[in-house]
Amino acid sequence: MVLMMKWIATLLVAVLLSSSEVVESAPQVPCYFIFGDSLVDNGNNNNLNSLAKANYLPYGIDFGGPTGRFSNGKTTVDVITELLGFDGYIPPFSSASGQEILKGVNYASAAAGIREETGRQLGDRISFSGQVQNYQKTVGQLVNILGDENQAANYLSKCIYSIGLGSNDYLNNYFMPQLYSSSREYTPQQYADNLLQAYTQQLRILYNYGARKMALFGVGQIGCSPNELAQNSPDGTTCVEKINSANQIFNNGLKSLVDQLNNQLPDARFTYINTYGVFQDIISNPASYGFRVTNAGCCGIGRNNGQITCLPLQPACRNRREYVFWDAFHPTDAANTVIGRRAYSAQSSSDAYPIDINRLASL
Fold this sequence. Notes:
Strand content: 5-15%
């Protein structure tokens, strides 16, 4: 009898453990859709006629090899994908097919901007409007898979949407006066307003095609990137204020847009992710995050390893975990992990407004 009771108890424990594993393996949301630039591109530019590619070593050196990600390892959205509980990463639009699209698609494209002309000197890229058009194609496929538009709309309403564009509109447009006229046509405030107007149009299209939970990622501190420090910082460590100031104007407008859209579209939920603030915290308190080098790329050429970005088969630094930047523009896996975690679960009240991605997912 005692043996029988022990056997039953063991069986119950096994059943409880297996059932908890099933619950843990189910993601918080059915799908995750990603729009952005090289910070989150995971291969969409690989087959484009573009200079903005990362499908070669040492990119991906800590990811099992190059995939098109502009990092030594994971991007911020990879980290968020893990935290949301997905089994595997979200596929790029360039290769996503069949039932795979049910868990979401990554449309991000390196050099892409909100404005159509942004990044043109680097070759082909998929602008924000182009990414939204690709999403519309995906929705058509989802309608076919799920049966009808109502079922697709219900499914999509539960999904998380990450949108993070604007960096290239400054880096590869406004602050490149030799190639673009935008800085002569607009003040920083006017330019931010222009960007946000175009950005809002695309968000409304996403809304019309089923998006209801949208996380809008602000622009980071572009003026603190190794490339800008190499070109425009007198000492190679002081961030370029005119660029960061313009970035903050855009971010303030984006945060206000979140309030506006939440009021206008009550059945949707928008939130702002303060990438700029998180980055500022990392750069101000590097040691607390395990970083030692904040002003130079782990892989690159010239001053701050930032004048020319990481080239094919170029040796990278060995202590990658101690670097904030992987190359002239992009964070390391370690920095992306900090940003991704704080976007998902806010560490301070300023990390996300009004809620973090974890709470957005649970709505």
